[in-house]
User: Fold these one by one.
Assistant:
Number 1:
Amino acid sequence: MSRIVEVSGEGFRPYEVVIGPGLLAGIAGISEVRPGRAVAVVSDDTVFGLYGAAVVEALGAAGARVGSVVVPAGEASKSFGQLERVLDGLMAQGLDRSSLVIALGGGVIGDLAGLAAALFMRGIDFVQVPTTLLAQVDSSVGGKTAIDTPRGKNLVGAFHQPRRVLADTDVLKSLPVRQLRSGWAEMLKHGLLGDAAYFDRLAAVGDPVGMADDALADAIEQSVRIKAAVVGADEKEAGARALLNLGHTFGHALEAELGFDEAVLTHGEAVALGCVLAFGFSAREGLCPPADAERVAEVVAAAGLPTQLASVGELTADGILARMTEDKKAEGGRLTLVLARRIGEAFVARDVDAGRVRVFLNASGAT
């Protein structure tokens, strides 16, 4: 049985996030696929090898003019070079303003293909088909598209909402354990920022590996509903949407310092550790109860996710701080962090003293 969550807001056309098993097999039946319409499937070599041929065949059987652009798997493909490659592929295949891009893959592909769709002829339709848990609960919903630069993550991008999101839960069965846990980190984040009862529900599961299909689908739906509500109220991150960055300013800095090497630290792992650091810093500053910070670390550890800086590599406080000041949420060189008053109640703290963060990072294991 499929679950449907509507994403709507003042500044964009509403769309549906459809969650359930077997959705990939029915992709040709969605309203965005029409006979004669040019469709480009953008994917990475790993995902395309698993699902690409079947998707292209189904779209072709529905009468669409189908082409594909396949990039290497991994965070490194969120680059100017690969963006140019995708855009050139869309041009070579004869797409026009009435065409459709289908992003078939994880968060990297969703971001890359979404940005290409936003730029191509000043914006064409695209459909998100997220194939990782992380992408299903986070990056596929909300219209943020971006690439990385050597100076930081997601610094070049655009807001471009999809026309539909198809979150096929069957594809999650092929995910490596580490990637499943990485998606779980974003789900924990949703509870931490605004829904303590949801966090408690996830905490009771502990490690998501081996979780029953229906229970996982229910949790995905709740995470999508939390994000949809925030996005609907604040599409361009002028206010409440910034709360979704809980754990991300620390996490993005760690990813950048480690060279965006997912073999060392996945994005979800960075977010999990970032949430632990955000709650730890909040407790150190007297903003939230120390018991809450301790519980966050315990729940994150129980899910098989990192909680200590030393566990991910040799990191310096100065290096992490330099990355944090380059973050797109920083303003005028001042640190902007999402901190917490308690589990389920996050807030945006502006003009945070970098010196106090340095002291905290040193105490947390940075050199």
Number 2:
Amino acid sequence: MKILVINGPNLNMLGIREPEMYGRETYGDLLEKIRKHAEEKQVEVSFFQSNHEGDLVDAIQEAYGKQDGIILNPGAYTHTSVALLDALKTVGIRTVEVHITDVNTREEFRKVSYVRAACEKTISGHGTDGYLEAMDWLTGGR
């Protein structure tokens, strides 16, 4: 199985950005954690991160016919991007939406997710372990 992990704006700043909320784990730490889990699950994993909406759309489109699943943390674009929603609908790749914090307990605007309509599942508030849970979901727990 091939899974693409896509991270949106500011996620490259993990460990620096509001560590009291997002923790001290760096983006590099997150990627290594996911790589190890993928190896245990015998999953081929690749990563993409951008602070630019169009680049995220391009990554989703480029996954068509190449990836079996997407783990997506769209960051702030969760609450604003119809373009990401449309890209996910277009490619039809199984997708799990992930958020490090519990967006439902934060500001009102964070409770709205445009991408959720194209996702099989949302994992929110489980820290970076949410990415591992998403991989488990996509692989059927194997």
Number 3:
Amino acid sequence: MPKSVNKTFLLGNVGKDPQINSTPGGIAANFSLATTDREKDQQGNWRDRTEWHNLVAFGRTAEIVRDYVSKGSQLFIQGKIQTRSWDDKQSGQKRYRTEIFVHDLTLLGGGKEVDETYYRGRRKDNAPRRETPAPQFEREYQDQELSPDEIPF
């Protein structure tokens, strides 16, 4: 049987504060992430198209979400796509929900913890958490403006 791959990478912003639930195996975090594509319409105008993704995290990763993620947080997510199904008690119809099961989580975009990568709830390098200063290129070029027309893609 050929090998298959189910791996998803998302970079986006959290839509609302995560919902934290207790499960028999620990805790679970449910939250949504918005990703945006920019494309030109037929008239040549740029349009943004936002896609919303349902995410779920368990165990230590859910604890990190609970402690450090809130509405507006920018995250880089690595995970896999899962689809659950159930019978709706009211209508009797079969319902489906597609979610991203979070394996790896990187906190971006400022706040107390910046650029921290977690693999299944553990720091990638097992190093202590740290405050991250602004990268040198940000300090060197902060007074220069770049318009969208100057970007080559």
